[in-house]
Design brief:
Largest interface: A-B, 90 and 105 residues
Strand order of the largest sheet of chain A: 1-4
Keywords (chain A): Iron, Lyase, Metal-binding
CATH superfamily of the largest domain in chain A: Nitrile hydratase alpha /Thiocyanate hydrolase gamma
Number of domains of chain A: 2
Organism (chain A): Nocardioides panzhihuensis
Oligomer: heterodimer
Pfam family, one (chain A): NHase_alpha
Largest sheet of chain A: 2 strands, parallel
Family (chain A): Belongs to the nitrile hydratase subunit alpha family.
Number of helices of chain A: 11
CATH topology of the largest domain in chain B: Cyclin A, domain 1
Order of helices and strands of chain B: HHHHHHEEHEHEE
Shape of chain B: globular
CATH class of the largest domain in chain A: Alpha Beta
Radius of gyration of chain A: 19 Å
Helix content of chain B: 25-40%
GO molecular function (chain A): nitrile hydratase activity; transition metal ion binding
Radius of gyration of chain B: 22 Å
CATH topology of the largest domain in chain A: Nitrile Hydratase, Chain A
Largest sheet of chain B: 5 strands, antiparallel
């Protein structure tokens, strides 16, 4: 253990050295590495969670199943997997605003949101969000939760993965699921931001 | 363990910085590190709880200041060395080589269809932590419980900010792999998992807590003790 803070060049060299040894011992191949990267750069991302939210907004029976067992409901849409084996959706309302965190590491529901943004994994957010959620939401994200709404912070300490079902915005009557899904932002499913504004 | 990684409620670490846009991977080396979790898991380096515990051993100054995926490099090295799967002197030698020759190629190697198949299978299937168990759940939804003050030196998910705090059981998830044994190489020993609800006042004190807030935190059965049974708790919620 050493307290040296490495430069990007030093980390890159260390990683390439490690990668070379893992390749030689048959643990990894560049083909498997490239496939894993491709999946999380292009296939698994917040567009999947947005699809689930839009369906929940449009279909009360699906929403009931989603709130009852999020993992099983997501499987109906072909959405499942690593770091989201057991998911729980928490629903926002006029009186409750939910926000997620992993204060102990970086746990995040990969199957519906992809890999987490860096601020979610950084010490600053993890340190502050359970203690001063309103202040963090307002100062870092420009997002104000009204005083009369309870703020619930979900700290993912187990393998249960929580994520937020935002409220359906007004002015969207008759919209298709595809139109609705365009409104659902990654941040609205973490609970740090609103859904996209509805053009009037 | 009481480590710096257990960050909830830590003051003075600075503001949350949110860039407008950022790529999934910020550097080529991050793309090489990300798959190491799944591939080294497959090769028997660690389970997910041990993987976390490896990161908890990082020097605190490095932990707080280094880019996220460098934490993963440390835990792969930690278990590679511990299990004799990595020759650390050789790793140092190769690091010096690639530092002097950043564009030097990786070793030539053939594709391995079984590794590609593993990636394509594990991403949608995952690796569930729920387990069958004969253990009877000691608690039920509505029970008021206290998190014990135990401070193990090995891996645990007992965050310091909830130790000693009183909360309400709001969900029961059934038995899951127990981090206090699995993270320390002592087996899965599944225990029932519950979600507890704590008021902000309970965690931070009425004087310092933001109003109208609560924190939900998951605990394993051995982490908690009964204060008031739901059957005797006619209020049904923490005041």
């Amino acid at each position: 253990m050493s307290a040296t803070i490495r430069t990007q060049e030093e980390i890159a060299a260390r990683v390439k050295a490690l990668e070379s040894m893992l390749i030689e011992s048959g643990v990894m191949t560049t083909q498997a590495i490239d496939r894993m990267v491709e999946i999380y750069e292009h296939e698994v991302g917040p567009q999947l969670g947005a699809k689930v939210v839009a369906k929940a907004w449009s279909d009360p029976d699906f929403k009931a199943r989603l709130v009852e067992d999020a993992s099983e409901a997501c499987k109906e849409l072909g959405i499942s997997g690593l770091q989201g084996e057991d998911m729980v959706v928490v629903e926002n309302s006029e009186s409750v605003h939910n926000v997620i965190v992993c204060t102990l590491c970086s746990c995040y529901p990969w199957p519906v949101l992809g890999l987490p943004p860096n601020w979610y994994k950084d010490p600053q957010y993890r340190a502050a969000i359970t203690r001063e959620p309103r202040k963090v939401l307002s100062e870092a994200f420009g997002f104000t939760v009204l005083d009369n709404a309870e703020v619930r912070v979900w700290d993912s300490s187990s393998e249960m993965r929580y994520w937020v079902l935002p409220q359906r915005p007004g002015g969207t009557d008759g919209w298709t699921e595809e139109q609705l899904s365009e409104l659902v932002t990654r941040d609205s499913m973490i609970g740090v931001g609103p859904v996209a504004p509805v053009a009037s | 363990m009481n480590g710096v990684f257990d960050l909830a409620g830590t003051d003075g670490v600075g503001p949350v910085i949110v860039p407008d846009e950022e790529p999934v991977f910020r550097a080529e080396w991050e793309k090489a590190v990300f798959p190491m979790f799944a591939m080294c898991f497959r090769a028997g380096f660690f389970g997910v709880d041990q993987f976390r515990h490896g990161m908890e051993h990082i020097d605190p100054a490095v932990y707080l200041k280094s880019p996220y995926y460098e934490h993963w490099v440390h835990t792969v090295e930690h278990f590679g060395e511990k299990l004799g799967k990595l020759d650390m002197a050789e790793l140092d030698r190769r690091t010096a080589h690639y530092l002097a020759n950043p564009d030097a190629p990786l070793p030539e190697h053939a594709d391995a269809p079984e590794l590609l198949a593993f990636v394509n299978a594990v991403v949608p299937a995952g690796a569930p932590a729920k387990r069958p168990s004969d253990k009877v759940a000691r608690f039920k939804v509505g029970d008021i419980v206290r998190v014990d003050r135990s401070a193990p030196k090995g891996h645990t998910r007992r965050a310091r900010y909830v130790r000693g705090a009183v909360g309400e059981v709001v969900m029961h998830h059934g038995p899951m792999v127990y981090p206090d044994t699995a993270g320390n190489g002592l087996g899965e020993n599944p225990e029932h998992v519950y979600t507890l609800r704590f008021t902000s006042e309970e965690l931070w004190g009425a004087e310092h807590a933001e109003p109208n807030g609560s924190v939900y935190f998951d605990v394993w059965d051995p982490y908690i003790e009964l204060v008031t049974s739901a059957t005797d708790n006619t209020e049904g919620a923490v005041a």
